[in-house]
Amino acid sequence: MAELAYIGYHFTIEPKEPATEILIAELGELPFESFEETETGLSAYIQKQFWTEDVLADVYILQSGEFNITYTFEEIEQVNWNEEWEKNFEPIEVDNTCRVRAPFHEYKEVQYDIVIEPKMSFGTGHHETTFMVIQHLLETDVAGKKTLDMGCGTAILAILAEMKGAQPIDAIDIDNWCYLNSIENAERNNCKHISVYEGDASLLPGRTYDVIIANINRNILLNDMQVYVDCLNPGGTLLLSGFYEEDIPAIDESCSAKGLTLIKKHQKNNWVALKYIN
């Protein structure tokens, strides 16, 4: 991977939630490519070629006064992101069944061995939401079922779905970096049934699925929920994550109103992942 120059923004946020989630959602609409939650708030990174001095001018949460958010920024010269995450990335195991590792980690025999090179993409399995959706997938029969991984990041969830027999599988992400990385990771894991698309929920009308996975964030989920439901076959499964325990009432109200039934919840720290059936 080529080395690139980045601008790093370091935000101090009080209180951290829900401001951090809102800030990530807003920055995600800009050319910011990577986010790292810190003890005091958030660090976000943008390629120097896409940066301007007023890049944050239209970020509403910074102007609203509702939260106390300050920031500094710095130029990070010629960062090799592969080297950076290789220093810190350790394999994870979920329920002694699924192991997520990088290409440089030694192989260990498990039922589902997933090799991910995430680069700048979200979805190594370390974040609570990805971990919990993996748990849901391990518990769900997806064999032969048409599946959607919405907001696929690294395509880790699509890859696990294929390993469990799901097909065909669509993996969609609005971010070009994630789109390219998902293609690479699908090939790395010898997946034959994953089609990767760059875009958002506007790609979905006219498609139908037996299983839909959407690990994004509360606001996008609520905005796109009707589209997901319209695409979900009768008896289909919807796996949702990317939000907090306190967001469950809003998510559940939207799902229930559209005829979905909550079947199971996983919780890790304050993050949750919900399983619905149609």
Order of helices and strands: EHEEHEHEEEHEHEHEEHEHEE
Task: Assess the beta-strand content as a share of residues.
Answer: 25-35%
Q: Which structural class matches the secondary elements?
A: alpha/beta
**Helicity level, as a percent range?**
25-40%
Q: Can you identify the CATH superfamily of the largest domain?
A: Vaccinia Virus protein VP39
Low-confidence stretches: none
Explain the layout of strands and helices.
Layout (H helix, E strand, L loop, with lengths): L3 E11 L4 H10 L3 E6 L3 E7 L12 H5 L3 E12 L1 H8 L3 E3 L3 E4 L10 E4 L12 H12 L7 E4 L5 H8 L5 E5 L2 H13 L5 E5 L10 E7 L2 H14 E13 L3 H10 L3 E8 L2 E7 L1
Parallel strand pairs: 6-7, 8-9, 8-11, 9-10, 11-12
Antiparallel strand pairs: 1-3, 1-4, 2-3, 5-6, 12-14, 13-14
Helix pairs in contact: 7-8
